[in-house]
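Service request form, structural biology core

Requester: graduate student, group of Dr. S.
Request type: structure prediction, single chain
Budget code: on file
Notes: please return the result as structure tokens.

Sequence provided:
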Amino acid sequence: MKVIYTDEHRKHDGAMEFLNGKLVPMFEMPRRMDMVMDRVRSQGFKEILPPQPIGLEPARRVHSDAFLEFLSVAWERWHSDWPKTTFAAPFTFAMRRLGQKPGKSAVSQFGYWCFDLSSPFVPGTWDAIKAAHDVAITGQRLVAGGERAVFSVCRPPGHHAMKDMAGGYCYINNAASAAQAFRDGGAAKVAVLDVDYHHGNGTQDIFYDRDDVLFVSLHGHPDQEYPYFLGYAEETGRGKGEGFNVNYPLPWGTGWDSYRQALADGIRKVEAFKPDALVVSLGVDTFEADPISHFKLKSPDYLEMGAMIAALNKPTLFVMEGGYAVEEIGINAVNVLTGFMNA
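Core staff response, request fulfilled:
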């Protein structure tokens, strides 16, 4: 399996996040990808390739131009208004009622285009965002060109990024952009399978009205877990998209036996959809030792997860998302790939 990776992600580092009443160093840190790549190399993955310079055109197919413009100048705007700060994050939010729109100040811009406090900017964030998107689309093009599967090691992650909002460590929705790129390249139908612990609210937002992209997500129940406001089982799509959005909200403490049942049902739905390509939002924060999550999967479970996904026998792009048990993230992510390849 080819692996797409770049060190550009390291430029997105040094910010803080507000969690449980405290300002703390971000759990989404560069060392996460160091551990993934250490495991990739130690397990004998030979073809580790840099991304091609794709640019933003694929992202424009799933995000608004105004939102992408904000991302591209966010740090410069903030630093111009607040030159003594070391990172940028919103502290007031537009509810988008009564025609609310972003003003010229950085605070207004951030409060309009972000939905929470956990997608901060530092000087190198935009470079890292663009590089992560290049990583995803480079992998997509390889799969579209005939590769059985490719692993795109994206950082920052993407599945919380909505059509026109950043949040949850996410800025551009790498998985959604890749799914759209498959469609634009001739795939009649594409499925996105999101196994990250947190609901892929951004991916749901992007495809909720469509019947050509099936979105299936297994995640912590929104009654208990971030992002809280989406991810309920009754959210099944809208209009033409009715029936093409499938959520499996699961309670805190879910272990492999229960998770496996939900995954098997989700895979059956993907199989019935008969997609031409599959995008997997690969988060491994379902692990029992993850510091910000509450599932109980163990490292060997990810081998079986990979084998279950492989049984679909579809051209598959794995896109890295979450996972914050840093010492084990590489083991768990690569176990999914190993289980897939050995199935």
